[in-house]
Amino acid sequence: MLSRNVYNTLSNSLTKWYGLFSIIALNTPGRGIGSIASHILKEYFKDLEILDLDEIGHEVLQYGHIQNKLDKVLGTHNRKILSGIVFEDPEKLQLLNDIVHPELYRKTWVKLCKTKGHVIIVGALIHEIKLAPCCNIIVTIDAKDENIKNHIG
Question: Are the C-beta atoms of 139 and 13 separated by less than 8 Å?
Fold first, then answer.
């Protein structure tokens, strides 16, 4: 169940910007919380466009030119293998980010340009990929994982 606080914050934000094109960011701590939030938001806000940065990131990792760069620089484009490589080595994580983040930013903007009305962007990378300046409102989920899961799903 969507936390009453999260629902009220998003509803109040939409009411405030009603009639305008607005972009609301739901900044999540990662670890799958964004995907859970996206799924629930799609149920509650059926008329809104929900852009899940995790889903867009998965799309980006399917692009041939991204896979080729990852293979060349990190030795693989397999997500499971990559996670083992980059989360143990900050320099390799930076290399991954340097390859993927620009394309994630571009793909998100392409999707934003195709939307009409209000949009909620959900993900942990809103600040890292420089989407924050385009958002009218940023709501941040900041709690322990078990508390978040108890409140939103």
Answer: yes
